[in-house]
Amino acid sequence: MNKSTSLKVRLPVFVLVLEVVIIALYAVFVTYDENADAKFQNNETNPMENSVYRDYPYFADVQVMIFIGFGCLLAFFRFYGFSGMVFNFLTATFSIQWAIVIQGFFQFNYGGKIHLGVINLLYAEFACAVVLISYGAVLGKTSPVQLLVMALLEIPIFSVTEWAVLKYIRINDAGGSILIHLFACYFGLGVTFVLYRPSLNKGHAKEITSYSSDILSVMGTLFLWVFWPSFNSALTIKGDDQHRAILHTFIGLSSSTITAFALSAVFNKRGKLTMADIQNVTLAGGVTVGASVDMMISPVAAYALGVMGCTACFFGYKYLTPFMAQRLRIQDQCGIHNLHGLTGLISSIAGICAIILATEETYGPSMYQIFSHRAPPVDDPKFLELQKLIPELKPGLGRTGQEQALYQVAAIFSTIAAASIGGLLTGFVMKLSFMASPSDEDCFDDELFFDMPADFSSAEFKMPMNHEDKEQMSSENTKV
Amino acid sequence: MNKSTSLKVRLPVFVLVLEVVIIALYAVFVTYDENADAKFQNNETNPMENSVYRDYPYFADVQVMIFIGFGCLLAFFRFYGFSGMVFNFLTATFSIQWAIVIQGFFQFNYGGKIHLGVINLLYAEFACAVVLISYGAVLGKTSPVQLLVMALLEIPIFSVTEWAVLKYIRINDAGGSILIHLFACYFGLGVTFVLYRPSLNKGHAKEITSYSSDILSVMGTLFLWVFWPSFNSALTIKGDDQHRAILHTFIGLSSSTITAFALSAVFNKRGKLTMADIQNVTLAGGVTVGASVDMMISPVAAYALGVMGCTACFFGYKYLTPFMAQRLRIQDQCGIHNLHGLTGLISSIAGICAIILATEETYGPSMYQIFSHRAPPVDDPKFLELQKLIPELKPGLGRTGQEQALYQVAAIFSTIAAASIGGLLTGFVMKLSFMASPSDEDCFDDELFFDMPADFSSAEFKMPMNHEDKEQMSSENTKV
Amino acid sequence: MNKSTSLKVRLPVFVLVLEVVIIALYAVFVTYDENADAKFQNNETNPMENSVYRDYPYFADVQVMIFIGFGCLLAFFRFYGFSGMVFNFLTATFSIQWAIVIQGFFQFNYGGKIHLGVINLLYAEFACAVVLISYGAVLGKTSPVQLLVMALLEIPIFSVTEWAVLKYIRINDAGGSILIHLFACYFGLGVTFVLYRPSLNKGHAKEITSYSSDILSVMGTLFLWVFWPSFNSALTIKGDDQHRAILHTFIGLSSSTITAFALSAVFNKRGKLTMADIQNVTLAGGVTVGASVDMMISPVAAYALGVMGCTACFFGYKYLTPFMAQRLRIQDQCGIHNLHGLTGLISSIAGICAIILATEETYGPSMYQIFSHRAPPVDDPKFLELQKLIPELKPGLGRTGQEQALYQVAAIFSTIAAASIGGLLTGFVMKLSFMASPSDEDCFDDELFFDMPADFSSAEFKMPMNHEDKEQMSSENTKV
Questions:
Q1: Quick check: A124 pLDDT over 70?
Q2: Where do transmembrane segments lie in this chain (chains A, B, C) (predicted)?
Q3: Contact C464, C262 (CB under 8 A)
Q4: C47, C246, C472 member nearest A47 (Cβ)
Q5: Residue numbers of chain B with a pLDDT score lower than 70
Q6: How far apart are CA B290 and CA A360, in angstroms?
Q7: Exposed site from A352, A480, B433, C148, fewest CB < 10 Å?
């Protein structure tokens, strides 16, 4: 057992190969973008002219979310804190350096060279977030080698999907509800479907939290909560669009938070609060406002979206996750389908409504900047008129709201399809025998992959579990 | 007992009602300000023209203080970590969404519409900070329902006071020593006076810390410490005023920190350090520099203020807090009267001195920007002169330093009065029977409001129930 | 025993004296710089004209690294969490306020007055980082009084060295690999050499971690990791130089992180991961890119540097640290020689290569801004030519790449020499009898300097240690 999960050879060899590949790719393809290249003497420091001053603050905020927010949130298991936090660290760092090249090929490719700047890092962190969300579905049941393999495959599949959707379908998705949350969710579900472990449906003795692990996890939630407005607004048009993105995200989060507390209490046997709800359901609002986050939906709509998303997410944890595990062989460890799937769908629908309802009365001419595909084509006389009002306006495709709505729908389905298929294939690769996958017995246990300090003892928590453990678990097995 | 503290009905109903009210108010009154409204095509991105770029960084810093700083700091009890951190989360999110409307009516009301931008969120967070400071006085003895009620009432009382003081008395208080710290302190003391629990004066078995809770609490202190300069400088005039606010806050904090260590050691029986001092007294400097934080008080004055505030705060904890509990029936759980009251008073006095001593030699003409009420009225010829030097100067009331000082004094007293009365009234409402207030026995225990993980056990920590105590209690009961 | 380590008199007296001295110095010498002085009406708010808007965001990021990053990282010992985190807090606050004056005399001295602005605070934080790195060498074996003495002496020695190297030798060291990391490392080694404790070479029973202390320490690592790009880019030329600094630091960190995981697994007996590696070795890349961080070294070079630095750092922990302790009487508690010494040397060499290889083809004329000492002197006709291309260019010394390289070498050796000698002298002062130095028995134990909560018990962990403890320790006694 222990032998077959030793990282002694597998991990180093795998990392070494990856590093050689990445060094080769960086050496041949990666160069500086003109804001980072000394040659251009581009010491222009106006934040809006120079991407470093425009994007770095948002990049830094997202960094905190990825490494500290996710890291703490995923450390909620009593015996799996090292793994939750540290494998998040490993997977994130690899995903970002890998995404820089892969996304670069599709989005920052100028004459065969990838032009590197802070903006690429920002995009790479979004790709990284996708991997980490999917990670939530298989938390506790995978080895670091499997996680690296997942990142290795998910990044390209995501990048292609992202690129295809943006280039051919052309959608509005400022907060990434479709491309980030829906993709990540269905990819993760695909993976976990393949990695199905029947015996874990009865629950696992180590699948519990501790007093300190719950607090640590709440800290993670708070870091995600605090910086989510930066996450949702990082890639919007600057100015009023970005401003609205910040406002809507904040409002959506705060309404979903108080809703989560209310639901947690009302559906608890003894009228008490459940930490798992506070750690996860409170965040639903951030995803739900995503697709329409930069639009003129009005503050009250953001508030209502937070309440709706939170409610859907809560009942998802309560009924859907167990159902999927029992009936559909989909063990969604952290309930990503609730926090990213259901909310992502609601968000997408809200986005579609916002697109259909958008009018020049509300937006003024800048409507054609936000809904850039609705801008008239270059040859259209209306385009010249508009350009008088907004010099920097780019020609569009002259789509109507209804047309754009249909494209959004197309994007939703194709994203879900690509993600699910990609996830299934990735799952099969991760299942290969030399991946050091832990036995059912050793799931949710740091002991397997770490030298543990003397005060750590998970030994007495053995499967099969007794009744009290099951109770424990039921309140805890739904997270992120 | 347990029945009467169940949140099953109370919390959800209460939250639901609040959400309906807030949705209605947002729907009718809240719209975007012109920096957030697409119609104005206001994609101006110069940080100083567009509030989002001017204010968002400070907003984000204050967010960290509110949710992570306060959250960790208040989690210092061994058996009350969940409640300390999580009720802070609940109270803060509700307070901010509530303050957006209430403060909006008073400060961002244009033709019956509340214009929403990041700046409102920033103001709302200061209102939220007020509630959380007051929360410190009743930590461990209140149910989440009571805390929401407190926020529900404190926000309007604070907003009216703030608005009245700023509109009619007109004061200088950049760091909020008067309007934030003094108000929050005396409001909290008013509440706790009404919620007086005689039996807790003899101490409570669960009123203890643990090794990890102390460390968590210090982390909270550090987050508050690190971002305090942003808190004190967020609302100052931009440019050199904001610059001084940052410098003074930092200097005041660092001098109060080393002073706290020294005092902690010298007054400890065995010459050791006490964590409670390091968690609280170190922060005194941040409050003490508040009222004069943007003035030309010179760096050494900021340093001295830090030392003074820290000393007052330390002795407050040592002698005043116990005295107030024993003699005045005021149980100030976290000693907010030391960290926010005494320091706030010193800060206010320092501010008054700085105002009286302010001269054009030191400030140049921009004195009339910082002390805007001392600027000559529009009809005064001196005003035109000054406007030549500072085009953006606004006409003032032509107050002298002495006059302004008197208005500061008036503001101090009226703020304290409004806060105390408001606190008392709020306390009576919170005392109503259906508020799920915990019994003395159940104070400082997460068990009461949370499903606890298996490793949590506060059971053996019972209150000292010797014979005389029982007598005491029974006599109290007869009183009631 | 207890008597001789009591802080009752020593600490307060020492702090009091320091405060009197600092107040006197601030009063006489410290005034506002022109961006912070109201008189200049300098309400210029363009981020690049006004240092507060240019520097404050980086200052805030570095604050988080110093107080939270270092604080958590140094709290990795099971029984020494309070001390690790809290003494870091004390030492940092004192170091910064002290550095403001000392560095001020050398670098911000205008007509006998120290002009204070956020930029000074930023410099002071770098000086503070130097002290905290050195602190890592003596962690667990020193009293707070000794640490304050160390800061008291190290700050001036560092400031003189920094000033002399920058003024007379004139080097490129944007990330501070030479002046910060090498200085801090060899100063710390000098101190610990003098404070040598033979009995601790056998290891100490309390020199172990716990499950929660390891997690806390990883959080510290993550905070350092996340904000390191701000640390390395804070003092570079704005524009593309700063942009590259951010990119290189991020890339270097992520390559060193995955390398650290691989090495940790391959050299572990059972093919498991060691937390000490993840807490420390992952950060090596941040130091290694330091000296060339703003140069056109290409992204792949940053990646390779991360891998190299990480490898050197890892083997340093494995072989060099034990060797130094056994043979050279140098007990490097946290292995700063690996994380800051070896990596600093590699970084310096890489910087020299980058300097020699720098050409106008790659950099364009702005080469003479980055390598300012290679710019032609004012009388050289080439200087006028260049000034046409870059108006703000300053005249230099007309050094060739080779010449500059030699000056870099000179700087490396003189920095190491000054640091070592300074460290030795400081060590002798710290060894004086009234410094409350803990006995060997009481090392790594919070009990000695803190009132401990009831759940703390290090009592049964007494020296002499048994075998299993030693094993424990060997994997844990090398950190930061």
A1: yes
A2: 12-32, 56-77, 89-108, 114-135, 147-166, 178-196, 208-228, 248-268, 280-297, 303-320, 341-359, 405-429
A3: no
A4: C47
A5: 1-3, 41-49, 463-480
A6: 46
A7: B433
Angstrom CA distances, A241 to A246, B328, C65, C151, C263, stand at 9, 54, 32, 48, 46
Quick one: which H or E segment has residue C7?
none
Of C16, C52, C453, the CB nearest to B211: C453
Q: Tell me if C365 is assigned to some domain.
A: no
pLDDT digits (tens, 9 = 90+) for A8-19: 999 999 999 999
pLDDT for res B42:
55
- pLDDT score of A466 more than 60: no
pTM beyond cutoff 0.90: yes
Cis peptide before B381 (omega within 30 of 0): no
Chain C residues with CB inside 8 Å of A68's CB?
Answer: 219, 222-223, 226
Contacts of C278 in chain A (CB under 8 A): 86, 89
Distance CA C125, CA C264 (A): 32
The amino acid that residue A163 corresponds to is: W
Considering just the CA atoms, what is the radius of gyration of chain B in Å? 23
Arithmetic mean of pLDDT over chain C: 91
Residue A77 lies in a domain: yes
- pLDDT of A44: 57
Which domain covers residue C187, as residue numbers?
Answer: 24-37+50-357+400-431
Amino acid at A60: A
Asked, for residue C452, whether it belongs to a domain, the answer is no
CATH number for C152: 1.10.3430.10
Q: How is the beta sheet containing A113-116 ordered, strand by strand?
A: A30-32, A113-116, A109-110
Question: How far apart, in whole angstroms, are the C-alpha atoms of residue B245 and residue B230?
Answer: 9
Q: How confident is the model at residue C463 (pLDDT cuts 50, 70, 90)?
A: low
Nearest chain A residue to C274, by CA: A451
Instruction: Please tell me the distance from the alpha carbon of residue C435 to that of residue C440, in angstroms, as a whole number.
Output: 15
Specify the pairing of strand B109-110 against strand A109-110: unpaired
Plot region of C140 (φ>0 → left; ψ -120 to 50 → alpha; else → beta) = left
Q: Which residue of B has its CA nearest to A229?
A: B60
CB contacts of A46 in chain C (<8 Å) are: 48
C-alpha to C-alpha distance for C25 and C18, rounded to whole angstroms? 10
Q: What is the DSSP string of B440-477?
A: GGGTT-GGGTBPPPTT---TT------HHHHHHHHHHH
Q: Note the maximum CA span of chain B.
A: 79
Point out the residue among B32, B38, B47 whose CB comes nearest to the CB of A47.
Answer: B47
Q: How wide is the angle at C-alpha B315 spanned by C-alphas B314 and B316, nearest 5°? A: 90
Q: How far is CA C65 from the centre of its chain?
A: 11
For residue B144 the two structure tokens come to 């989440």
Q: Give the C-alpha separation, C113 to B299, whole Å.
A: 13
Nearest CA in chain B to C49: B239
Q: Which tokens belong to C451?
A: 């009132």
Tell me the nearest-neighbour CA distance from C372 into chain B, angstroms.
30
Burial of residue A110 (CB within 10 Å: 0-12, 13-18, 19+) is exposed
C391 occurs within a structural domain: no
